[in-house]
Every structure is written in structure tokens, then in C-alpha cells.
Known about the structure:
The complex is a heterodimer of chains A (252) and B (444). Chain A contains 8 helices and 10 strands. In chain A, a hairpin with a 2-residue loop joins β9 (215-220) and β10. Chain A has helices at residues 47-55, 77-82, 100-104, 119-133, 149-162, 179-194, 206-212, 235-244; strands at 9-18, 21-31, 36-40, 62-67, 70-72, 85-88, 167-171, 198-202, 215-220, 223-229. Chain A folds into 2 domains: 1-84 and 166-252, Rossmann fold, CATH 3.40.50; 96-163, no CATH class. Chain B is mainly alpha-helical. Chain B folds into 2 domains: 33-199 and 291-443, ABC transporter involved in vitamin B12 uptake, BtuC (Orthogonal Bundle), CATH 1.10.3470; 200-289, no CATH class. The chains are: A alpha/beta (252), B mainly alpha (444). The A-B interface holds A 55-57, 76-78, 81, 87, 89, 91-98, 102, 106-109, 111, 115-117, 120-121, 123-124, 133-134, 136-139, 141-143, 148-151, 153-154, 157, 177-178, 180-181, 184-185 and B 1-6, 8-11, 226-227, 229-230, 232, 306, 310-312, 315, 318-319, 321-323, 325-332, 389-390. Bound molecules: adenosine-5'-diphosphate and magnesium ion. Residues 47-48, 90, 171 of chain A line the site of magnesium ion.
Amino acid sequence: MANSGTPLVELRDISIAFGGIKxxxxxxxxxxxxxxxxxxGHNGAGKSTLIKCLSGAYKADSGQILINGKEVEIKNPRDAxxxxxxxxxxxxxxxxxxxxxxxxxxxxxxxxPLGFVDDSAMEAETRKILKRLNPNFRKFNVPVxxxxxxxxxxxxxxxxxxxxxxxxxxDEPTAALGPQETNMVSELIQELKAQGLGIFLIEHDIxxxxxxxxxxSVMKNGQLVGTVNVDxxxxxxxxxxxxxxxxxxxxx
Amino acid sequence: xxxxxxxxxHAPQVNDAHLNxxxxxxxxxxxxxxxLGMVGALLMIWLGFxxxxxxxxxxxxxxxxxxxxxxxxxxxxTGIMATxxxxxxxxxxxxxxVGSIVGFTGMVMGILQVNILxxxxxLGHPMIWVIxxxxxxxVGALIGAFHGWLIAYRAxxxxxxxxxxxxxxxxxxxxxxxxxxxxxxxxTFALLGGGPYGAIGSTGSWIVGILGCIAIIWILMRARVAxxxxxxxxxxxxxxxTLAALTCGALIGAVLxxxxxxxxxxxxxxxxxxxxxxxxxxxIFISHxxxxxxxxxxxxxxxxTILMTRTRFGRYVFAIGGNPEAAALAGINTRWMxxxxxxxxxxxxxxxxxxASARLNxxxxxxxxxxxxxxxxxxxxxxxxxxxGVGTIYGAIIGTLVIxxxxxxxxxxxxxxxxxxxxxxxxxxxxxxxxxxxxxxxIK
Lengths: 252, 444
Ligand SMILES: Nc1ncnc2c1ncn2[C@@H]1O[C@H](COP(=O)(O)OP(=O)(O)O)[C@@H](O)[C@H]1O
Ligand SMILES: [Mg+2]
């Protein structure tokens, strides 16, 4: 994978602190179109916080965000969506009392010419996209609280995929899934990558990282340990980075 | 990506042959069983009071046109506010200040229409009631917006802000006129409170009833067309017909009831004299028809239902209640929403003050006293969950009817003393919420 030209996303020198805790401490990473960059590190390393600065959930204390080489200001989730950034949060961020369609279109409802929400059109669209992602999904007219973990994950993924994202952030998308469903997500990631999306993937399973990611960035205690090309290192090297917080000698 | 790749649990084509007729009826019509339960409870209360009257006092006075008409008027003030309280509670807040806002806006409107506007426009000017009512709505909305701002942008809990508001606005209501009662209000304004002249009459009620039925059928047909367009499962035709018959039947029934309640003989005499009618007043039957406050409540209920079910605003109210964090991550400005919700609540309190002071034909600083408790109780009895995320406008109105029926019924069977009414309403509130908890456990 030759990454030349302007990156799709550049996070430069991002820092954010909560009280005294430096959750993200001068981290710079980038992402090219058609590339999957894995974000790794122990719990509490700052992965979710870093990507939340890109998705608009948090505003970084300092640092820059560049999209296609142009600096942008992402003050809230709407700004991120306007940049075609879609996020699957670790917590899924679903309103439990609403059905799948209402969640999928939350904040971007389809409306009739008179401005009223068009529930049947949204349900029809939801049925279409979920048919593709999860052919067994049937529960369209119940609150998502009545869905299984995998079904809820499907809704969260469908929401990110539906709106033609250019930049996709997936925070532990397979955490709640069984092996078969995890495979479906893997296939989806490969398909989206082939379509030219740039994907940040936070993932704990080192085998998935080796299989899906082009590059891997490792964080520890809010700092970036380093970024490696996955095909130039072994899984042992990456695990070493996560545990020791040091880049392997040969890749450095 | 489903954990059980086989066996869809809620496929539309479920075989329902094994269900009893009632269950099959409910499934086919897709009626909300919780709402059916509430309507059932309401009818039981009505029947219970009526039969108690028949058996113990020798005359049933509950199920009479006169009582049902009065009940509808008494429901209006609380019902108007209960629809707004639904939004407040869905978003995990509470508003304890609504009764005091009624008192304060009522006083402001009283002073405006009695002491100020006649000086400039002349006594009885036709614009007085319009300016007064609009001012009441605006003052209420501004107070609510201020509460909402403190809650959303200053992060003070709504319980505290509105508890403070309860005290502040009640005190302010007293100070507006040094505790004096302002009366009578503008005669046109007074019609907004009901009474024989403040009702739309027999013909008007028939027009409302027929237009209502046309609207019901149009809504059912439109829903069917939308389902067909997207190839969703359709309700069986008999279920659609039953739904239409039930709802239109209830509406026409209401028209018959309010039209069966005649003007009292005294009013008829005055009216006959004023209009040069020569017939014996005792033989003239003039129907009340729907009271204007009831029409106001109906308009509010329809508008609020559309707001909650058909607009983005309503969708966001539910989303914030279900998961505030998710709502914010979906780009919803949750603070601005909260401010708007409290402002709407304040405006509805102002509207309730219009009806309440018009009905009383005076403005007093005690107007709406303790009303917040009945408003909250009505919303909660009507199925609004204090945990947030769940509630309906029609539920709140049925809840208001339940609570009003209990109060009226106690008076009619001879327990008019306020203490009995409080005890019954208190028990009903706790019982309703307990039944709701049991119901929700069962459907899970
Ligand atoms: N909203 C917050 N308030 C306070 N501390 C936070 C907040 N979000 C994250 N943190 C802290 O920031 C650090 C990084 O957390 P997080 O980004 O969730 O880690 P990861 O996703 O890598 O497991 C942790 O110490 C966490 O406690
Ligand atoms: Mg995380």
C-alpha cells in the first residue's frame, strides 16, 4: 500500500485532558483513502478519546485536524457528519426507546415536503440496508432495547454505512459479537475499504488487526507509541509495542 | 449479525389462530394494549360511580350529559398542561412551577384586560381578549424559557429550578395586585372558559364531529397507502373498519352527549327575551355542544400529538429521553431542545391560565394552586415514565380524565370534602404506576 499524496485525515498534535488526566497527549496520526488504520492499546490508553475528537464528541484542547489537507474545525458531531465522518461508538450510542429506523436516521430524518418525518420511507430504507448487513434482522417495529447485542451492533453499523461516509471510525465494532458475526463485520470492512473509504479501527483482537489493517498505531497512557506498516511486522512486534510502550527495533 | 440466525421472532406473518378473539383483535388492529387498559379503567370508574349513586343514593348522576359535560370542562385546564408535562418528563426533567405560572400569567392578563387595555381601546373592545390571551402565552413562554435556560445552560437540576419557580411566581402573582382579585374579566375573554355561551352549540358540535370522522378515516387511509407503497404488512380490512367505527363512534357519541345537555332555563329566558323569541322558554331546548375550553384542549392535543409523532422536534424529545448522550452524538442540540421544551411548557401554562381565569371570570393570585401536582399525576397515570423516554399525549389526556373523574365522582357520591378526594387521587396515582410497572414487566 503506497501512501502518497495528501492524507484523507490528519490529526496533528492532538491533546485533551480531563481534570488532571492527560487522556490524549500530543498524538499525531493520519489516514489515507482506501486504508484501514488500527488503533491499539490497553484500556484507558486514550483510543476512544482520540477518535472522539475527530467525531465531534469532544473538542481537543490543542492540535489540528486536516481533511484532504485543509484544516477544519470540528466543534460538534454535526460538523463531523458534514465532513462525511461517521462513527460507530464503543457504546453504540443508540436511543433504546426508539426503533431501528429512528436510530438510523436520528438527527438526519427523512421528511415529507411539508417537513413531517416520513417514518415509512425511513423504515423502508432501514430494511434495505439491514437486509444487506444482517439478512436475519426482523425486528423493525420494536425499540432497540428489545434487540440482542449483535442486532444492536447491526443498527449502529448500518447508521454509519448508510450515509455514504468517506471516513469511518469503528470503536471496537466486534466487542459484542460472536465469531460468525465478527466475520461479517470483517467482510464489510474489506468491502468498504475497497470502495475507497478510510477507516480508523479500534480493535483488541491482534489477529483481526493483522488481517484487516494496513497500518497500526499503538497508544499507551495517552501517548502515541508509534505507527507501523502491518505487513512489515509480526503480531509479536505489535503486542510488544502495546505492552512495553516501545517501537520494535527493526521497524523504528 | 444476529445471535440467533434462525427463527425470526416478530415476523409479520405470525400464525395467530391459537389466540383468543380479543388477542387476535388487538394484534390485527395494532392497538396499544396499555391505552386499552387505561380506557377500560376510565370506563370502570365512570360506571362504578354511577352504580354507587344508583344503589346507595338512589340516583345515578355520573353518566348524565350534565356531569360528563362538566367533566370535559374541568379536564381542560389540567389536560392542556399535562400534554406539555409529557415532554418535560420524557426528557427526564420535572416542572413544579406550572401552577404558579398559571397564577402569575393569570394576574398579568387580569390586570391587562381590566385595568390597562380598556383605557386605550375602550371597554369591551373586540381586540382586548386577543391581546390579553397572546400576552398570557408569551409571558408563560418567557418564564418557561428562563427556567429552561437555567436548567440547560447553567446545569441546575430542573427539580430545583422549578421548585424555586413555584415559590417565586406564586409570590409574584400576589404582588402584581397586592393580593386583590380582579373581576370580572372581559366578556369575550370569559367565553374561553366555557359556560352556556362559551360553547359551540349543537350545529357546531355536529360539524366538529363530522369533520373529525372524515379526518380519522383520511388518516387511516393515508397510513394504508404508505404501507402499501413500501410493501409493509397491511392491517386486515376488517381491522381497519373496526378501528374507524370505534373512533368515529366515540366521537359521535361525545357529540350526542354534549348536545343532550340543554341550557338552563334561566339562560334560555334571557336569550329568548334578547332575541325576541315568543315561544315558552320551558319548551325551548338549546344544546350546549362542546365547550370552548374542550375545543382548546382538543386543538392542543392534536397539535402536540403531531409535534411528538410527526416532527423532528418530537423525535428528538424521545431520543433525549432514551439516551441523552446518544442524542448529542447524533448532532442534536440537547440544551437548546431543553430550553424549548420548558418554554413550550410555560406557554401551555399561560394557555391554561387563559381558560382557568376565564372560567372563574376573575384573576386571583391563588389560581392554579397545587395544579402542578395534578398535572404531573395526570401525565404519570397516563403512562409517562419518570425514567424518561416513554409517554404519549393521548395517554396524558386519558390520565387527566381519570384523575378528574375521581375528583368529580367523589363529590357526586357525597364525599365532596377535599380530604377524601385527595386520598382517592393519591391512592390512584400510586396504584396506576404500580400497575404500569407490572404491565411493563409482563410484556418484556
Ligand atoms: N469524559 C471523560 N471524563 C473524564 N475522564 C475521561 C473521560 N473520557 C475518558 N476519560 C479518561 O481518559 C482516559 C482514556 O480513556 P479512553 O479514551 O476511553 O481509553 P480507551 O478507549 O483507549 O480504552 C482514561 O483514563 C479515562 O478514564
Ligand atoms: Mg475505548
